[in-house]
Amino acid sequence: MMDYVNAFWVGGLICALVQILMEKTKMMPGRIMVLLVVTGAIIGVFGWYEPFQEFAGAGASVPLLGFGNVLMKGVKEAVDEKGLLGLFAGGFKAGAVGTSAALIFGYLASLVFKSKMKS
Questions:
Q1: How far apart are CA 28 and CA 66, in angstroms?
Q2: Which candidate, 42, 53, 11, 37, places its Cα nearest to that of 95?
Q3: What angle do CA 72, 38, 29 make, to 5 degrees?
Q4: Best CA proximity match to 93, nearest among 106, 105, 103, 79
Q5: What's the CA gap between 50 and 62, in Å, rounded?
Q6: What is the rounded CA–CA span in Å between residue 5 and residue 9?
Q7: What is the CB neighbour count within 10 angstroms for residue 100?
Q8: What pTM did the predictor assign?
Q9: DSSP 3-state of 111
Q10: What pLDDT, on a 0 to 100 scale, did the predictor assign at position 86?
Q11: In which residue ranges of the chain is pLDDT below 50?
Q12: What is the pLDDT of residue 87?
């Protein structure tokens, strides 16, 4: 039960902090998304993301912080295996499943629901 509670409050806290950034700064949503991915990658480099993810579960792995961590882990593994070339290939290999799922589900949602332009 505590796994669900921790995932809920950690994920909610991340979302609340992002909402505060959106409301109180002039940062565009795209820049905030990049900030989250880079922050997750940096936290992963120092080895702090794994204990954080063990504590928070899906509250830490689902947001963009988790995606940054996944990319960084893929890059680290690929650099160990392939050297400098892994710097470019590792992130693509590690993030391929999540990116593919987002594209497929987005396409399926566009088939089911009628999208409209904002007016």
A1: 20
A2: 37
A3: 140
A4: 79
A5: 13
A6: 6
A7: 10
A8: 0.76
A9: helix
A10: 84
A11: none
A12: 84
How far apart are the C-alpha atoms of 111 and 92, rounded to whole Å? 27
pLDDT value of position 1: 81
* Per-residue pLDDT tens over the stretch 2-34: 889 999 999 999 999 999 999 999 898 889 999
**Paired tokens of 21:** 């950034």
Give dist(CA 79, CA 6) in Å, integer.
Answer: 33
CB count within 10 Å of CB 77 equals 14
d(CA 93, CA 73): 10
d(CA 7, CA 60): 7
Given a contact cutoff of 8 angstroms between Cβ atoms, the answer to whether 3 and 55 are in contact is: no
Residue length of the chain: 119
Name the token pair of 118.
């904002």
